[in-house]
Amino acid sequence: MGLWYDETFGDHIRLGLRVKETLFSGESPYQKIEVIDTVGFGRVLVIDNIFMTSEYDEFLYHEMLGHPALTTAPSIERVLVIGGGDGGTVREVLRHPEVKECVMVELDELVVEVSKKYLPGIGTAWDDPRLDLRFIDAIEYVKTSKDEKYDVVLLDGTDPVGPGAVLFDETFYRGCKRMLNDGGVMALQSESPLLMMDIFVETQRKLRRLFSEAHPYLGPVPLYGTGTWSWTWCSDTGEPLRPIQERQEAIVEGCKAYNAELHQGMFALPSYVKRALKL
Question: Which of 1, 5, 2 is nearest to 25 (CA)?
Answer without folding.
Answer: 5
